Amino acid sequence: PEKYRPTITPDLPNRQWPNQRLTQAPIWASVDLRDGNQALANPMTVEQKLKLWDQLVAIGFKTIEIGFPAASQLEFDFARRLIEENRIPDDVTVQVLVQAREHLIKRTYEALQGVKQAVVHVYNTTSTVQREKVFCKSKADIKAMAVQGAKWVQSYAKEHPESNWVFQYSPESFSQTETDYAVEVCQAVMDVWQPTPDNRCILNLPATVESTSPNRFADQVEYFITHLKNRESAIISIHTHNDRGCAVAAAELSLLAGADRIEGTLLGNGERTGNMDIVTLAMNLYSEGIDPQLNLSNPDSWVPVIEEVTKIDTHVRHPWVGEAVYTAYSGSHQDAIRKCLMRQKDDEPWNVAYLPIDPKDLNRSYEAIIRVNSQSGKAGAAFVLTQEYDLNLPKWVQQDFAPVAQTIAEQAGGIVSHQMLYDAFIQHYRLD
Ligand code: KIV
Ligand code: ZN
């Protein structure tokens, strides 16, 4: 990240930009194996979950939600495999989800028997519409459900003192809950757990369905944080979904509003339009010189694992890691890139037009950046011939050869290989 610096936003006349930008990575929690998995038409097998688990650990996640062990035998068995096969490194904490219901909480602790440390994540919905139309319960009743759930989580933990437990509570659909009521419910949960600054609980604020603009969601988060009495005893976690396409923006603004932790999935698989994409947020940070604390540097090794277990292809234009993101087709882009690359010095911060980061940092090759097709002007052909074949073409040759390159691209029906281009060049100037 030293190679990058914060994006310069030119000042507008008479306007002071608030100097708010992120300066460090959040605490990450991957929910690929739980929220991601529950969104799949064919949920993962235990073997697939193990494969994804290994990948998440390799990338560097320190908290991984592994599933809902009380919900199915497969999820239960997966938790047991991780624990019994000693697959959980000492610095990684597993997290499990459970509803605020006693028999489910009891079963969850059975699944976790013998774990060194775990986050027990209990939730119930607090949204207005669910209170009124689904549960037909009052605010007080829903709060009582949360409090009761918190008590069960705590009392079953006491029966398993051999493990270190961290408690997490989510007011599901936080974004569709009156924010002062969400504070009241979470405060009541904290009253049960009695966390301290040295032994914090996690309060996770979900946009279960993204139903507001990202700035409004961040306002809710800010209100929540500033009205929570013992904020220093809680890790404030954000769990956004992407229904309006703004899950990453909502997460970034929430961090600026004071949140500490982000839940999401790699490449954004999750219910409906997805969970917050950790890759995008992590790489956004990276491109501004912030160490994301995750090693995403070789997408060619981990993207196929995600695709295999989710059976979802990655869009070619997926931010940062899509196949096409470091390819320039238009001549003016190619020209600008060529000039910037020529002038980019190794000891200076990266500053190349149209390339927000050096593709090499994601193990992408420069060769893929410039292709010559019927759209590209003189610069594309010149770039390939210079880079690949060490031919330093004077300007008049670049101009002279451009129509030749375009003609062969048209004849080839699209993209011209570097070799075709070179052969055409040699032939055109009778250099052989
Ligand atoms: O989206 C959501 O609300 C969830 C919770 C259960 C945390 O996934
Ligand atoms: Zn979710």
TrEMBL record:
Its Enzyme Commission number(s) read 2.3.3.13
Q: Kind of enzyme, top EC level?
A: transferase
GO CC, sorted alphabetically, is: cytoplasm
Domain Pyruvate carboxyltransferase, by residue range, is 26-300
Q: Per UniProt, which keywords does this protein have?
A: Acyltransferase, Amino-acid biosynthesis, Branched-chain amino acid biosynthesis, Cytoplasm, Leucine biosynthesis, Magnesium, Metal-binding, Transferase
| Pathway entry | Amino-acid biosynthesis; L-leucine biosynthesis; L-leucine from 3-methyl-2-oxobutanoate: step 1/4
Which catalysed reactions does the entry list for this protein? 3-methyl-2-oxobutanoate + acetyl-CoA + H2O = (2S)-2-isopropylmalate + CoA + H(+)
List the GO molecular function terms. Answer: 2-isopropylmalate synthase activity; acetyl-CoA C-acetyltransferase activity; magnesium ion binding
The coenzyme or cofactor needed here is: Mg(2+)
Top-rank taxon:
Bacteria
Q: Where does Mg(2+) bind?
A: D35, H239, H241, N275
Q: Does Transit peptide appear among the keywords?
A: no
Gene Ontology terms: biological process: L-leucine biosynthetic process
Where it sits in the cell: the answer is: Cytoplasm
**Which family is this protein grouped under?**
Belongs to the alpha-IPM synthase/homocitrate synthase family. LeuA type 2 subfamily.
Q: What does this protein do?
A: Catalyzes the condensation of the acetyl group of acetyl-CoA with 3-methyl-2-oxobutanoate (2-ketoisovalerate) to form 3-carboxy-3-hydroxy-4-methylpentanoate (2-isopropylmalate).
Oligomeric state and interaction partners are given as: Homodimer.
Question: What name does the UniProt record give this protein?
Answer: 2-isopropylmalate synthase
What organism is this sequence from?
Hydrogenovibrio crunogenus
